[in-house]
């Protein structure tokens, strides 16, 4: 592709309006995530506890803004003032859970519909990450770590509120902590936040901002579609394993076991003394 045409396309992507189509895609996939998290009893639960079902779905839809606002000292419920998005979220929730013969859920799960919605949601995610970094930069111009944290939370807030979201539905799962087992979306949002901060606050990235933003969008969309169509769920895992082996003690633990020394042997001796 001609470089000027590519740059023009990048400028068009960065100017995309999220309302209403991208908001619909985001809300639809959030409602689907809640329903799938409920499992086989989703339909019965939605009939018996509609308020809890609605509240948990709204929390997933608006999670990024709520969590980021709480950390920045802003009103947590401020994202709910966006009435059009609240209406879209409620309508998509109703479609996924309550349409006759489950038509809405079946259509949303239809592969072409799901693929299109997933691609749109990733464009939406890139926008949210960038907005989070930009907003934090206005409040704390020199606090890079705050920009990265807020951008990450904006990109995958639902992952960090899963514990509360399930608690609203009466399920207590204390191990469902995003900090213990970060999902790919959290890792990708973290990487995107770092790149946006470097682009915004340093001279390390010389490419035009539109190309940087477009590159993040392509990254998000490509790996989301790869997870749906090819089953590639987390491309960061090999790099994490290598990093942990080299810098987090993995290689030294393995060497200690190989030499018959170190912690594993000491633990065995302690266990024998206890017995």
Topology:
Blueprint: H1 3-14, H2 21-38, H3 42-48, H4 50-72, H5 83-98, H6 103-109, H7 111-139, H8 144-155, H9 157-160, H10 162-168, H11 184-201, H12 209-229, H13 237-247, H14 250-259, H15 263-274
What are the salient characteristics of this protein?
275 residues, mainly alpha, Trimeric intracellular cation channel type 1B.1, potassium channel, transport
Describe the structure.
With 275 residues, the protein is mostly helical. 75% of the residues lie in helices and 0% in strands. It has helices at residues 3-14, 21-38, 42-48, 50-72, 83-98, 103-109, 111-139, 144-155, 157-160, 162-168, 184-201, 209-229, 237-247, 250-259, 263-274. Helix 4 (50-72) runs antiparallel to helix 10 (162-168) and helix 11 (184-201) runs antiparallel to helix 12. The radius of gyration is 22 Å and the shape is globular.
Query: How many alpha or pi helices?
Result: 15
Question: Helix content range of the residues, please?
Answer: over 70%
Order of helices and strands: HHHHHHHHHHHHHHH
Low-confidence segments: none
Cα-based radius of gyration, to the nearest Å: 22 Å
Overall 3D shape = globular
Mean pLDDT over all positions: 92
SS-based class = mainly alpha
User: How many beta-strand elements?
Assistant: 0
Protein name: Trimeric intracellular cation channel type 1B.1
Subcellular location: Endomembrane system
Pfam family, one: TRIC
Membrane topology: Multi-pass membrane protein
């Amino acid at each position: 592709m001609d470089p000027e045409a590519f740059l023009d396309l990048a400028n068009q992507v960065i100017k995309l309006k999220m309302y209403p189509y991208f908001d619909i895609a985001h809300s639809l996939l959030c409602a689907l995530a809640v329903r799938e998290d409920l499992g086989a009893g989703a339909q019965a639960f939605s009939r018996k506890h509609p308020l809890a079902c609605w509240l948990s779905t709204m929390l997933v839809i608006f999670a990024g803004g709520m969590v980021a606002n709480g950390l920045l000292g802003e009103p947590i419920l401020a994202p709910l003032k966006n009435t059009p998005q609240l209406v879209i979220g409620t309508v998509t929730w109703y479609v996924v859970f309550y349409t006759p013969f489950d038509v809405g859920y079946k259509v949303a799960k239809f592969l072409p519909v799901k693929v299109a919605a997933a691609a749109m949601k990733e464009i939406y995610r890139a926008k949210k990450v960038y907005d989070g970094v930009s907003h934090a930069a206005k409040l704390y111009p020199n606090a890079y770590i705050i920009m990265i944290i807020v951008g990450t939370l904006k990109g995958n807030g639902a992952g960090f509120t899963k514990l509360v979201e399930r608690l609203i539905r009466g399920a207590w799962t204390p191990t469902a902590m995003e900090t213990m087992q970060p999902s790919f979306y959290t890792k990708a949002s973290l990487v995107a936040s770092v790149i946006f901060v470097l682009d915004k606050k340093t001279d390390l990235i010389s490419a035009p901002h539109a190309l940087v933003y477009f590159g993040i969008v392509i990254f998000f969309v490509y790996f989301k579609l790869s997870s749906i169509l090819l089953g590639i769920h987390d491309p960061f895992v090999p790099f994490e394993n290598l990093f942990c082996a080299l810098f987090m003690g993995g290689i030294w633990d393995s060497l200690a076991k190989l030499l018959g020394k170190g912690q594993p042997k000491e633990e065995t001796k302690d266990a024998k003394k206890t017995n």
